[in-house]
Amino acid sequence: MIQIEGFVTGIAQENCYLIHNEQNLLIVDPGAEGDRLAAEIERIGKKPQAILLTHTHYDHIGAVEQLRKLYAIPVYVSPLEQKWLGDPILNLSGLGRHDDMPDLIVQPAEFEFELKEYTIGDMTFQVVPTPGHSIGSVSFIFDNFVVVGDALFKGSIGRTDLYTGDLQQLLYSVKTYLFTLPRELPAYPGHGPATTIGQEIDTNPFFN
After folding, report:
1. Metallo-beta-lactamase domain: from which residue to which, for each copy (predicted)?
2. In this predicted model, what pLDDT tens digit does every residue of 91-138 receive, in sequence order?
3. Cross-strand partners of 30
4. C-alpha span between 137 and 84 (Å, rounded)
5. How many C-alpha atoms does 137 have within 13 Å on its Cβ side?
6. In terms of Cα–Cα distance, which of 104, 148, 133 is closest to 11?
C-alpha cells in the first residue's frame, strides 16, 4: 500500500509530500526546510528514489538541490518548465516577493516528464497536464490519491495572475483531468488541507 505524508514548508506554507511503500520513497515538491525534510525521510526509513515537481515556482523547489545531492537522486519536471529551475525571474524567487530571499538557481532536472504512466521505486502513477497556474503544471495520479500541486485547492484553485497563468485553461484542466477521477479519491494540493475530488465537484465555488 502506498502512503503519503505531507509537510508544510517555508514562508509560503507549501506542502511537500513524501510518498512511500514498503521499501522506497518519492519526494514531491520539496519547497524549503531541507534539513527537516531529510529528518522526516530518515524517520520513515525508506529509500528515496526521485524528486517529482508539479511545477517550478520557488516555493516548490527551494530544497531540491539539498535533497538531490544528499540522496543522489534524479529530479523530474515538465519540459515546459525545465528552464525555470535556473531562472530566478521565471521561478519567482528573483521578483523581490520576500526581502530575505536569495535568487534561487536549481540545476537542470535529469528527466522531463512525458504525459504517461511511470513506475519509480515500485510505485506507479500517471502524469497528467494541469496547466493554468503555470504552463508546465502537472498532477500525479496514484491508485489511492492524486497530488494536484497548485491547480486545485480545497474550496479554491491556483492563482492565475502569474507568468503563463490562464484562468480558462486552469478551469479546463481541472474539469478534464481531475474531475473525471473517482469522487472518493483524496486530492493533495500544494497549499492547505487535503480534500476529495467529489467534495470539490460539489462545493468548489469556481465550478458551481
Report:
1. 13-191
2. 999 876 655 678 999 999 999 999 999 999 999 999 999 999 999 999
3. none
4. 12
5. 31
6. 104
End-to-end CA distance of the chain: 34
pTM over 0.85, yes/no: yes
CB-CB neighbours of 44 under 10 Å: 14
Which residues are registered as beta bridge partners of 20?
3, 25
Q: Strand 14-20 and strand 24-28: pairing?
A: antiparallel
Give me the pLDDT at residue 105, please.
96
Q: Name the residue with cell 508544510.
A: 8
Question: Residue 68 is inside which H or E element, if any?
Answer: helix 64-71
Residue type, 15: N
**Residue entry with cell 523530474:** 76
Cα separation of 146 and 88, whole Å?
29
> In which order are the strands placed within the sheet that holds 24-28?
3-9, 14-20, 24-28, 47-52, 75-77, 111-112
In the 8-state DSSP scheme, what is residue 197?
H
Q: Which residues pair with 188 in a beta bridge?
A: 147
